[in-house]
Amino acid sequence: MTTLCVNVDHVATIRQARGVDYPDPLEAAKLAERAGAVGITVHLRQDRRHIQDRDVAALRGVVAGKLNLEMATSDEMLAFALEHRPDQVTLVPERPEEVTTEGGLDLLSQGRPVAAAVDRLAAAGIDVSVFVDPDPRQLERLAALTGRGVKGFEINTDRYTRGEAGQIELIRRVAADGGAAGHRVYAGHGLTTTNVGPIAAVPEIEELNIGHFLIGRAVLVGMVAAVREMLAAMAAARPTA
Ligand code: PXP
User: Domain-by-domain residue ranges, the chain?
Assistant: First the structure.
């Protein structure tokens, strides 16, 4: 059964739009876990446009399952992660002007800073995942990082969710090869109840990180109902699981 980590960044987006103290990402996290999410994901961006440092600190004490912190490999973020010790850090690329994460980490050009970040996080006992595009060349580079403590990788589903031809085949191949190489395989970006099925059906993908669609849906039907709808769509893709 594929599990779900709910990204609550955009609860904070709504809060930050007015500079008030509601809606509270902590409350959203509690409701998401109550509805069946196995964990909560947040992206602490360098510009702090949604999640704030205090949110991560507070979530650490509230999340019963896995707290997954997405972050860039900067010294500031590494120091933050080492202080607050999430269960998992997912390393992502970050460009200040981007609307959302634009692509996976390029392990071909960024291997050195990523390896340095992995070393520091793994030495502190924090599980590390890296967000990469479904590209077999990235997987080849991942092997070097595995020896340094990377436990898994998250496949960027962005281009699949935009309907790009050939993406689902690439995702299946990278998931199969990654799983066979002993990595834990996760996926996410742009997933909705409509497009999640083929991704949830990939046997090696054990966990999905889903945010924007879920929070948008929660505005209309509530957090618990939105998470349950997503879990039902995921389960329908693997009826015998
Ligand atoms: N995974 C990663 C690495 C991300 O950066 C994001 C966006 O913050 C997501 C998953 C979730 O994407 P979405 O909000 O489109 O569901």
Answer: 3-236
Provide CATH code, domain 3-236: 3.20.20.70
Phi/psi of residue 7, each to 5°? -90, 120
Distance CA 45, CA 116 (A): 20
**82-131 tens-digit pLDDT:** 999 999 999 999 887 888 777 999 999 998 999 999 999 999 999 999 99
Listed in sequence order, the residues at least 6 apart from 185 whose beta carbon sits closer than 8 Å to its beta carbon are 152, 153, 155, 175, 178, 179, 204, 205, 206
Ligand 1 atom closest to the Cα of residue 215 is: 14
Q: Which of 71, 18, 26 is nearest to 48 (CA)?
A: 71
Q: 211 C-alpha vs ligand 1 centroid, how far in Å?
A: 6
Spatial CA neighbour of 16 closest among 48, 62, 40: 48
Question: E strand or H helix at 181, and its extent?
Answer: none
Q: Evaluate: CB of 189 within 6 angstroms of ligand 1.
A: yes
pTM above 0.85, yes or no: yes
Q: Which residues contact 174 (CB under 8 A, 6 or more apart)?
A: 134, 135, 136, 138, 139, 155
Closest ligand 1 atom to Cα of 101 = 5
Strand stretches in 27-100, DSSP E: 39-43, 66-71, 88-91
Active site residue 212: no
User: How many other CB atoms are there within 10 angstroms of residue 115's CB atom?
Assistant: 18
Q: How far apart are CA 36 and CA 64, in angstroms?
A: 11
Compute how many other C-beta atoms are within 10 angstroms of the C-beta atom of residue 97: 6
Does residue 39 sit in helix, strand or coil?
Answer: strand
